[in-house]
Amino acid sequence: MPIGKQDWLKEEGAxxxxxxxxxxxxAPAFDQAKAELLxxxxxxxxxxxxxLREQGLVSDSDAERIAAALESLDLAALQQxxxxxxxxxxxxxxxxxxxxxxxxxxGNLHLARSRNDMGIAIYRLVLREKLLETIGSALLLHERLxxxxxxxxxxxxxxxxxxxxxxxTTMAHYIAAVSDSLGRDLRRLKAAFxxxxxxxxxAAALTTSGFAVxxxxxxxxxxxxxxxxxxxxxxxxxxxxxxIAAAVQLAAINLGRxxxxxxxxxxxxxxxxHVAPPYVQISSIxxxxxxxxxxEHMRSLLSSCAGDAQTxxxxxxxxxxxxxxxxxxxxxPYAWKSLRTLESVYRLLGCVIGTLxxxxxxxxxxxxxxxxxxxELADTxxxxxxxxxxxxxxxxSRVVKEAVSRGLSASGLELEALNRAxxxxxxxxxxxxxxxxxxxxxxxxxxxxxxxxxxxxPEEVLRALQHQRFRQESDEAWLQERRxxxxxxxxxxxxxxxxxxxxxxxS
Length: 507
What we know:
It comes from Paenibacillus mucilaginosus 3016. One of its GO terms (biological process) is L-arginine biosynthetic process via ornithine. This protein has 20 helices and four strands. A two-stranded antiparallel sheet has the order 1-2. The protein has a two-stranded antiparallel sheet with strand order 3-4. The chain starts with a helix and ends in a 7-residue tail after the last helix. The mean pLDDT is 93.
């Protein structure tokens, strides 16, 4: 028989919260809040109390009573507690504890604020910490890449386009491209931090307050770089977390392409690199196997990171332009997880890069046997024969096709065959001699002559790496300044409240 309304209410509970609602939404949100949001919530409470007292909105005696209540809360017990439904969420449970300790005076701690502006501020405090951790690990990887590249400016290797052998380059040139890409990811993460690190406090529900609170002082006490100017925007704008998700997603995609290449290079067929024993697992059945599982896991973790970031963006999509704190309760954990995953992969990859062994001799031999150098042969004909590049290209292409059909490598190209092709196309032999031919087919010469800005010439790569090191130093200084600003503000807030919370006869 169908269950009637009264029977259903009896099953779910006649008052808030319904059993299933608590199970599906409120209990998971409570667990996330006590793990991630409780400490920043207390930071906001302390800062708000300092501001209220400075503005004369609470008396000295009430401020000290509330401070004592803040100091007496058993945060460890709160973090171990389970959701019971007695309180809607963690905020009300904390407020109840304060009222128990300080009486009605504690009710004024919520003067001129709402869970809307407070919740957004707490989310921003949490996200900025996770962003800084991620940026710190990205800088660690960036430094390892720069050091690794610096060791391989003379390590000649083949570059690929369309997955085919293209032209000789160096390992340093390749890795410098990866670190440049990582540098752009760092700049995007820093830009996301700049937009995240702004204060919503004082916006209250959405229209500010008639009380003379200081939004500017709250931003200062919480080490925000400034205010979200419009109060409606302060509680409605979700792009601060969307921008983080977009930056994280792109960073994961960028890094995933490099990780996939490392995995390919680990195969015996490519034989480019050797992963150190701490990051390799054996097969349970095949004694010869060295499975580079650390790289495999990074590949899948970066995919999950990009997916979690996309979930954030999808959950924001088509939400109303208004307070969406409830939606944010559900989406914030995905942002936290995506940042945590990206940060951990940065650290792991930095360790792996720092221990890689490169098969320099094998890479050089492959480059020397390849026809990837013949672009320089065509360029040489332009220089020595005053031919157009297209004509030189046609001559060289014909010689290469003939060599391939005969099973020859680039080192087997003959001046006689080149002259024969030239005679068919331009009607004469070339002035090119044997020494010039050999030099034009040498991968080291190919690399050395490409000294334009951004090229693989070792000196040019060293210049580029030095420029990246300057950015690295600047980014490290930026990170240190941000961490110090946050630490200083938090220390001031905590020590001020702790001092106020001591009864006058004990101070």
